[in-house]
Write a structure and sequence with these properties.
670 residues; alpha/beta; nine-stranded mixed beta sheet
Length: 670
Amino acid sequence: MAAAPEGEGLFADPETFSPSIFLDLPPTPRPDGNGEVLASSDDLVLPFITRILMEEDINDQFFYQFPDHPVLLQAQEPYAQIFSDAATATVPPSSSDGPAQLLLSPPHPDTGLHGFTDDGVGPFFLPAQDGGSPELEQSPAQLRAAGDHAALASVFFNRGDADAEMLNKAFLKGMEEAKKFLPTTNSLLIDREAEEEELGINGRGRKDRDRLSWDDLEAETCRKSKLMVPEPEETGEVVDEMIVNGLELCLKEMEALRITMGSEAKKKARKGKGKWAQGRSSSNEAVELSTLLIHCAQAVATDNRRSATELLRQIKQHSSPKGDATQRLARCFAEGLEARLAGSGSQLYRSLMAERVSVVEYLKAYWLYLAACCFKMTAFRFSNRTILKAIAGRKKVHIVDYGVNYGVQWPALLYHLANFEGGPPEVRITGIDLPQPGFRPAVRIEETGRRLSNYARQLGVPFKFHGITVRWDTVCVDDLNIDPDEVLIVNSIMQFGNLMDEGVDIDSPSPRDVVLRTIRKMQPDAFILHVMNVSFSAPFFVTRFREALFFYSAMFDMLDATAPRDSHQRFLVERHLFRQCSLNVVACEGTDRVERPETYKQWQVRNHRAGLKQLPLDPDIVKTLRDNVRVQYHKDFVIDTDHNWLLQGWKGRILYAMSTWVADNPVSEL
């Protein structure tokens, strides 16, 4: 029969695979007669590639499963010839081992696969016997392997031809280079005395570092890391003591701040005329930095990168996180502008939120903030006094707290309830908070409930705690188990500003309106609301930037006048409160921008629209709070009232407001 045309060979059936390690794999998809891949190939390609990628020991399986494969034998032929010449020169005539027997002879008992010793060194990685280079220190296993292969290595590296001599010199040169990477001493650790001094290990209790195993070193390293890095969540007596006795600690911190700031004021007064010059220079610098920040925000808004970069350079040159209030403010806002310009605001904000500070350090900074700033402490006192007035003569009270956090407000209330005439009432607190990141989203609220329950038990107050960790707009009335016999109080201290407003999704109801309607359905005896008096919800970036700049300029100035500049707690307050919030306002957009406060007048309209009615302020409570602020805090703090709102500010600028509300109409009329 005539040979088939050359073109028909392209469409002939492919010949079968030769035996290989891939015999158990599905066949490789092949094109059909029209050059198109079969429809079923989608089910074969991915498993085929996956199996190949998962075969990490494919070479070893090939060698051991198919030792007589023609391709393998062809590749071994040159090396078998070399070993054959070596065997002819060294093996006695009575031994007739052929090349195949020499190649496939079993390894030494002390060596593993491929002739490697227990130390992981192959027998051919041994120094030559001509004394041409210094010998490395060898383990006993290496010496045994060297004895078995000495003759073979000698012949292989000392052949008379030029090629063998070149290989020998290259091998010795390689050993010289490799020896440079070996340690010159047996000490692989850092200085023992410095390490033990850092860990605080005494002389008798220390271990001999030269005898430590790797397990001991790993355990010691882990122990050292625990000493250096605090746990993200700390519980125990220290945290309980700080939270339960928070009022006393805050009063002590106030006294310490008063003494410290008084001494600093005296030092400044001694400078005389220099103080006036310094104040004028600082004022000019404040105006300059504020102007630069606003111009930079305008450049960022118009995507003028060249101008924004130059302005950022000037701002950073004159700002510092350890300087005065204006310098710290400028550095903080410059970071937000830079992140917005680079498009990395959301990532930077998430990294800041992911920073973990120990609870002890957080609480120390928190007490400094309460002692230096009257805003939070006044809000706690206003809320507690309003609750005490509402439950007078009643035996049960239920408090729903939006944003319970660590529950620092409630120990003082429990203490007052324990001293009620006729015995304390039954207290039930439902704490609502957002889930925490990590594997234990409810750990903080659980610890808060445990801590408050223990303290109430010590005071003899009947107490129950229920924690809810969900988005606040998903909480409904049925989740709260409301009892008509209880006095129902709804409380929120500076938390509603983080609820989303209408700017995110105009087609769905605002989460803050949903929460307000839920509160109305609860029919509380008092809804206590404390809000920031600033609007970060403007759709235009420059307008929002100006609002944030003016608000936080007052906050930084307030902290600079009431807390030492070198205080570590002040640094934590500025970093984890002011910096995080301002960065979110400046650098984030959409759902990533969670800082959305409104003015108290905007909240008043929103509450009325949700069916809530504002209650008048109690004159006795207002007078008491004014007296406390005047006696305990800086003279530039402001306490004022406006349309049944209690206002708080600094140097004439109103920063916070609080008021009390109830449901306007019965639920049945909804």
